[in-house]
Design brief:
By secondary structure, the chain is an alpha+beta fold. The protein is 29% helix and 28% strand. It is elongated.
Length: 276
Amino acid sequence: FANGPVAVIGALQGVWEDVSSGFVIEIRGLLADFHDGTGFHQVEIVPFGLKLRNLSFISAVDGGLLSWQRPDGTDALWTSADPVLEDPSWAKRFLEFKTARAFLRQSWVTFLKDEDYDFAAVMKSAWESNFGFPKGTTPAQELRLAAGRHLIPGACVRHRHHKVRAVILGCEPWVRATHARDMSERERRTLPPFGLDSYRHQPMYCCLVDDRDVSGGGVMFVTEADLVADEDIYPLESRFADALLEPKDAIRSYLPRDPILEAERRQELGLPFLIR
């Protein structure tokens, strides 16, 4: 603490992202919110440094990183959460829009099942439109949201370059650090549209891939720019599909089952999309 603990606490202020977990941590004054439903945690000044939750502060590292030590002695690195700082309201509006679109498609399926074709036609028309923008959405955000209006959990998609067939399981408003480190050079070089200046500022999707295209199947995370909605791939062939997705022949697509819905509820707290 060459400059004293007060100066270090000052350097902690802002929004950070854990490089290994993708968790977002917001520090205001001496209070930190890990966005995991546990409330606020206090930054404590202890004889040999600072402690936060179960972490001990080590140092600020060049390049805007914070280094902490976990109880087991391993290091935890935090980086500035630039996508959050770029547009603080984006993540909330993105998830609200996806929820509205999912409700719309669920209603469409329900009306078809009930043979109420007039209302089903209304729902289909709304699905093809940009319906669902949250209150307060800016024109710039509307453009970004509209680009992915058909990309919601259960939607059938194809990779724009690799042609892999898949179904979306979850949606992330931006590229978290945990996924950024695994991206290809092409993906890192591709800037998103709408004037955004970093590949990390675009949405990313967790997709269940078709066993016929990838040996062993599984999931992959794909940026929005690399996905194309394609109902012609329905039905997907995957040994994981039955546990996660409910097929709907009438719309050649799927509805998410409980594991996905639970992951979405955790996202509302600020956690990364993760199926347990």
